[in-house]
Design a protein that fits this description.
This protein is an all-alpha fold. The longest helix is centred in the C-terminal third of the chain and has 42 residues.
């Protein structure tokens, strides 16, 4: 792995790279993992393949926005708690700003069906395919792990519920433990998580404490901003499966109660599809509709706070577990299952919502070749996808 930098230089490096990803990472959480893999693992080698896969598996098990938590985790392992915060800011701020602007001046704009948006969805197909192929070569090298990945793929495609992924990962951990309990792995990753277990315990305590305390404060005070914070915090705390799953929760919290109209909610959903970065930033749009730019920032802080508390709280214990010889077999099974889960998510919704005609598949093949064989920078691939999508819409 690449030698770590320290202090301001490390934070500046994280901010620049995560901001570039935040401006170009279209396609949803699985696509984000592909962009992260290409930038942080393939190009910069900040983590090895096993550590990245372990981190992805951990974040799949935690409630909240998995791709954002992976980005925070990479920042933490690069430069501590501040590194995680800076990584989050760089990746998230572009879409937060864009969605607040949409809320304030462009609520009536229909962007969901724009040609360039379709082109960016096709870019996501190429990026995710590339990431899955690279990770599968490393994490499913034998027939046993290929079989675990296949079972995970079948299960997550046939039973698409919020808790299926967690159940599949737990089952894969048991299978991995049984299949590889005698396995001796000489390739031990050298990863340092610069967070103490005491700090981690405080973060986990705060996560559960706020979950209990905020609804009580809401009832006692009847203050609007506390009610807003509580609704967004609970939505960010209780969701497994990423941004699309949080949308029904947010709609239940705000539309029936009269905070905003159904039309405004759906307009914001269209805008959220048009911007890069995590779909959880949809909260910035909702907050801005309800209480201006300050409401947008408050909503963003509230919905992402659980992700911070959980990843800060879990990382130190995760690192200790992954080094335990008894746990390594379980992690081998989990990592194989993650490949199956990623292939499942690659098919639906990424492939099914992006490849609608033969010309789409042909364009995806061109973009894949640009990324994999011609080794062009991802921003060129993204720009080509946007232009190509606009041209395809004219045909």
């Amino acid at each position: 792995m690449q030698e770590k930098k320290t202090g301001f230089r490390a934070l500046l490096e994280i901010l620049i790279i995560s901001s570039r990803l935040g401006l170009s990472s279209f396609g949803g959480p699985v696509a984000h993992l592909g962009y992260f893999h290409n930038e942080y693992i393939r190009r910069r080698k900040w983590l090895d393949e096993k550590s990245y896969a372990d981190l992805v598996a951990l974040c799949q098990c935690l409630p909240g926005p998995a791709s954002s938590q992976v980005g925070i985790g990479i920042g933490v392992m690069r430069a501590g708690v501040l590194g995680g915060i800076v990584s989050f800011i760089g990746f998230t701020l572009p879409s937060v700003i864009a969605l607040i602007v949409f809320a304030l001046i462009l609520q009536g704009l229909d962007v969901a069906d724009a040609g360039w948006i379709h082109g960016l969805k096709i870019v996501a197909v190429a990026v995710v395919a590339h990431a899955i192929l690279g990770m599968a070569q490393k994490l499913t090298p034998d027939v046993k792990r290929k079989t675990v990945a296949l079972l995970a793929l079948v299960a997550t495609l046939l039973w698409q519920t919020a808790f299926t992924q967690v159940g599949v990962i737990l089952a894969a951990a048991v299978l991995g433990f049984l299949l590889y309990k005698q396995h001796r792995d000489t390739e031990d990753a050298d990863i340092r998580v610069p967070i103490s277990k005491g700090f981690a315990t405080v973060c986990l305590s705060l996560f559960f404490g706020l979950l209990i305390l905020l609804p009580i404060l809401r009832e006692v005070t009847a203050i609007d901003w506390i009610a807003m914070f509580d609704s967004f915090y609970r939505s960010g705390s209780l969701v497994f499966g990423g941004g699309h799953v949080v949308l029904p929760l947010l709609e239940r919290e705000f539309v029936p109660t009269g905070w905003l109209s159904e039309e405004a909610f759906l307009a914001g959903y269209g805008a959220a599809q048009a911007v890069p970065g995590p779909l959880f930033t949809f909260a910035a749009y909702l907050g801005a509709v309800m209480n201006g730019w300050a409401g947008g920032l408050l909503a963003t802080a509230a919905i992402f706070l659980p992700a911070f508390l959980l990843i800060f709280g879990a990382l130190p214990f995760w690192d200790a577990l992954r080094r335990n010889p008894k746990i390594k077999g379980a992690l081998m099974g989990v990592n194989a299952a993650v490949i199956g889960i990623l292939i499942s998510a690659f098919y639906h919704p990424i492939f099914t919502s992006s490849i609608l005609a033969p010309i789409d598949f042909a364009f995806a093949a061109i973009l894949f070749s640009m990324l994999v064989y011609w080794k062009l920078p991802p921003w060129i691939v993204v720009l080509t996808g946007a232009i190509g999508g606009s041209l395809i819409a004219l045909i």
